[in-house]
Structures are given as structure tokens and as C-alpha cells.
Amino acid sequence: MVALQTILTPILDGAIVSSFAGAIYALLSSRDKTGGMIDPISNIVLGCSVTGCLQVLGKLLLPRLFGKLSLNKADLTPVELSRNRGKFEEMVMSLVLMSISSAFMYSIFESTDWAWWKDQNLMYTGPSEPPSTTVNYFYSVTVGTWITSGFCCRFIEEKNRDWLLMYTHHALTIALICGSYVISMERVGCIILFLHQVSDIVLNICQLCHYLGWDADHFPLHIPVAEALFAVNILSWIYTRLYILPTVCTVSVFTVMHDNEYCGDYSQGRYFCDLLGSFLCALQVMHVWWLYEMLSVAYKILSGVGADAAARSYLDEKKEKDQPKEKSQ
């Protein structure tokens, strides 16, 4: 596994850098088409700055806001408790960022009466119809946000058993978002982002409840808050990532793009489209794998293990699989 990670990491780094470069080039081109109204470089820097500032403010303010908040302390060492508090604060900031972005995307979809979702032929705008100013701003700021999150995933976040899979998913998602803009299917990119963030919001809330110890064993009156949210998380995961994503986005990339004359030369148009479609298929495989892991935790909960014990069992299993890596190094 260590050898595989050593080989794939620089490849994924290159894929992310290439995606960013392609997106910046496309954004610069769109600025020319819209009469210079869009300044993508400034907006990308703005996205990086806003994300970075919010993370710094979170580190400064959240300990004061949640300093007296009692996290789940069951059988935790001081080091584990401190790490959980740090993860809790990171998830709160992530939840804030995703909620703001999702609300903005929701307003875009609402302004179009959700037409992109209803008619897949509208997914492709073509070079003759440049993206709107709103979508351009959204894309350029989002690229900046993903630069920051990609940097954190690569260099700052703890590398556990799932790190390589998470980083691969991160790289593929960035490539899809940037690549969809390059081939004038930015509406697909907006939907991909929206679906990911909506399901991640539910997942983050579920994880926050776990760190707070809001399960049936610890919550007043033994109300299974964490367990109920975990069930909602599984349902939202299936609906957004395993149903809507393939039926709306993957079908659009493989069919709508192929039906347009703009593709012309297969090597310049449809080849890149097929590449993005393969990335979407790869994401689906990862989503199925994570669903399997979530169902495994759900099975342990239904077997009477309890939400906290099931989650800790999963984390302990990850640690055990990480230990041989550390020894081999």
C-alpha cells in the first residue's frame, strides 16, 4: 500500500495542477468573451483568501464558542480527546463553507427553474454561448476554494487508511469541475458540486453528533439522534451520489456531448468528454465502496453494538491497518 501511495501521489498532484491550469485558461478565455467583466485570477485568489481566512477565524473563534461544549469522552485519552475537538472545529468550518456554497448554487438553480436538471440537452452550452457572469464568478471562486482544500488534504490533514482514496476522489472531482468548464459543460460541474456538498452537509452533521456523543447510549432519554442522522446520511448518499449523479451527470456527459457538432474532431472533443465520463464512473465506484463501509457500521449498530462503539470499532480497525505502514517505514 505504501508503494502504491508513493506511485500515485505525484500522478494525482499532476492531475490537480493540470486541472487548475486548464480551468484558469478557460476562465481567461471566457473573460475575453464577456467583454472583460470577469477577472478569474482575482476571483481565484479571493476564493483562496476567503477559505483561508475562515479557517483561521475558525481556529481562533471556535475554541471560545465551543470551549465549554462537552464532547463524547467515553474511553478517550487526552490526546484522542484533543484530536476529536480539533476535528469537531474543522467540521464546523467545513459545514459553514459548504452551506454558503450550496445556498449560492441553489439560488442559481432556482433562477433557472431547475431547467438544467429537467432537460439534459441544456447541459451543453457550446462555445457560442459563454457562461453567465454569475456562473463565472462561482467557478473561479470555487477553484480557489478547492486549491485551499486540496492543499490541506495533501499536506495538512492526517493520512489514515482512506487517505489515498480520499485524495484520489478529491483529484477526480477537481478534474471534473475544471474539465466540464473547459468543454462548455459548466452546468454539469455545478450539479456535481451541489450533489457532493449536499450529501457532505448531512455527513458532517452526523459526524458532529458523533463527536458530541448524541447517540442512544449518551443522549438524554436515550434518543438515538446520531443513529437517526446516520440513517438519513445513508439515504441521502444513495439518492444524491448513486442515483442523481449517474442519471443526470454521467448520462449527460456520455450522450449529450456526443450529439453536438461542436465535438467535431473526436480527438479534440469527444475524447476529452469520454475521459471526464470515465472519471465520473471512477467516482461511482468510490461512492459504492464508501456506502459499503457505512452499511457495515449500520449493521454493527443494528446488532446492538451502539453508534459510539461501532464508530470506534471502525476507527480502531483503521488504526490497526495503519500500524504496519508505520512500522514498515
TrEMBL record:
Keywords: Membrane, Transmembrane, Transmembrane helix. It is found in: Membrane. SMART domains: TLC. It comes from Triparma retinervis. The chain crosses the membrane at residues 7-28, 91-109, 137-156, 163-183, 238-257, 269-291. The keyword Iron does not apply. One of its GO terms (cellular component) is membrane. InterPro entries: Lag1/Lac1-like, TLC-dom. PROSITE patterns: TLC (PS50922). One of its GO terms (molecular function) is sphingosine N-acyltransferase activity. Signal peptide: none annotated. One of its GO terms (biological process) is ceramide biosynthetic process. Pfam families: TRAM_LAG1_CLN8. Residues 83-303 form the TLC domain. It is a multi-pass membrane protein. It comes from the Eukaryota. This is TLC domain-containing protein.
